[in-house]
Amino acid sequence: MDKIMINEMPKHVGETVRIGCWLANKRSSGKIAFLQLRDGSGFVQGVVVKADVPEELFATAKSINQETSMYVTGTVVEDERSAFGYELQVSGIEVIGEAEDYPITPKEHGTEFLMDNRHFWLRSKKQHAIMKIRNEIIRATYEFFNDRGFVKIDPPILTGSAPEGTSELFHTKYFEEDAFLSQSGQLHLEAAAMALGRVFSFGPTFRAEKSKTRRHLIEFWMMEPEMAFTEHDESLEVQEQYVAHLVQSVLKNCKLELGVLGRDTSKLEKVQAPFPRITYDEAIEFLHEKGFDDIQWGDDFGAPHETAIAEHYDKPVFIVNYPTAIKPFYMQPHPDRDDVVLCADLIAPEGYGEIVGGSERIHDYELLKQRIEEHQLDPEAYAWYLELRKQGSVPHSGFGLGLERTVAWISGAEHVREAIPFPRLLNRLYP
């Protein structure tokens, strides 16, 4: 008898198999018990028919508590009524670990209660589906960049400077020195790109931003590619191809999970490159036409502004060439204007906001030195970064994709806190 995972059942139709699983839920009549079983790879219904099993086994099936762990033996059969397409006709149950008073029941629970019990909430069908979609996005990311000759680089998490030049950093002591938790791996990736050409990182980043919106986390994960000999427009092409690849990979490999979440996949099917592009100037004009008189040229966009722009399109949209004054020091100026830079934010549809931010980087030594001075940054902290421009500098570009915002958008999750296993929010460091 084979011990298999639930997701392997399609290969074992008609066979008697054994699975290690937990009881997610159950219901029963006088003669049949229906057990909702999960093992991490998926969910399947186990059917226990009183007339076909020993009396003791049927009594066990009716009495086991939610989240009790067990080995279940049974025959795999096809079931067209099930979203999974298969069920297990149970012939044996071996209890491993009993569960009592499991806190998350099939009834409705408040958000704070669910967050306090996040270590259990992850077991639920919808949270399981979101985590599977997150995993597929990560897998597809490695596939995309590896297929295009990028090299995975791991930048440091402890740094002595701030890539964005902001004060929203987590400070710590590094022996006798001051250090910060990284808010981006970009600067170190630029150095790696000068060595390896095309690189990318995937790791945690930290922003000490006191925001409570559904788009913000204190700790989140970023995909950050950096490309030598690459100008802004070339980078935009990589960005739209990458995002389209993620969406299409999820559509292909996570159909069951998208169904569990009730996601409208027709909207995702439209996400094909190329994406529309508008300038910051055009975005301001559009917002004024829509009655947003609060936004003026030189202001950064808030959630309502991004949502209004996104609703005008049926796929992600690039907003390019933001004002120099509201962007970080390292962005390359526009060749024909000194008031905007060569950058872009990619805004996701359906109100999920910015999911990608990128730019061409300044490669001229004197200009970058001037920008560092204008932003009143510590020249010693950025000395190594500046030195890159003196040793064979080249035009180069890069971007960062926020994993959790992307997961939330593709899965249709209401809040980014559901897009990461254990969210760190403004007032939450538990569990």
UniProtKB/TrEMBL annotation:
Location relative to the cell: Cytoplasm
Write down the InterPro entries for this protein, in alphabetical order: Aa-tRNA-synt_II, aa-tRNA-synth_II, aa-tRNA-synth_II/BPL/LPL, Asn-tRNA-ligase, Asp/Asn-tRNA-synth_IIb, NA-bd_OB-fold, NA-bd_OB_tRNA
Signal peptide interval: none
Q: Which UniProt keywords apply?
A: Aminoacyl-tRNA synthetase, ATP-binding, Cytoplasm, Ligase, Nucleotide-binding, Protein biosynthesis
Q: What is its main location?
A: cytoplasm
The UniProt record lists the EC number as 6.1.1.22
Q: Does the keyword Cytoplasm apply?
A: yes
What residue stretches are annotated with the Aminoacyl-transfer RNA synthetases class-II family profile domain? 131-431
| GO molecular function annotations of the record | asparagine-tRNA ligase activity; ATP binding; catalytic activity, acting on a protein; nucleic acid binding; transferase activity
GO terms for CC? Answer: cytoplasm
Q: Which reaction does it catalyse?
A: tRNA(Asn) + L-asparagine + ATP = L-asparaginyl-tRNA(Asn) + AMP + diphosphate + H(+)
Q: What's a GO biological-process term for it?
A: asparaginyl-tRNA aminoacylation
Subunit comment:
Homodimer.
Describe the family membership recorded for this protein in Swiss-Prot or TrEMBL: Belongs to the class-II aminoacyl-tRNA synthetase family.
NCBIfam families attached here? asnS (TIGR00457), PRK03932.1 (NF003037), PRK05159.1 (NF003483)
What name has this protein been given in UniProt? Asparagine--tRNA ligase
Source species, please?
Answer: Bhargavaea cecembensis DSE10
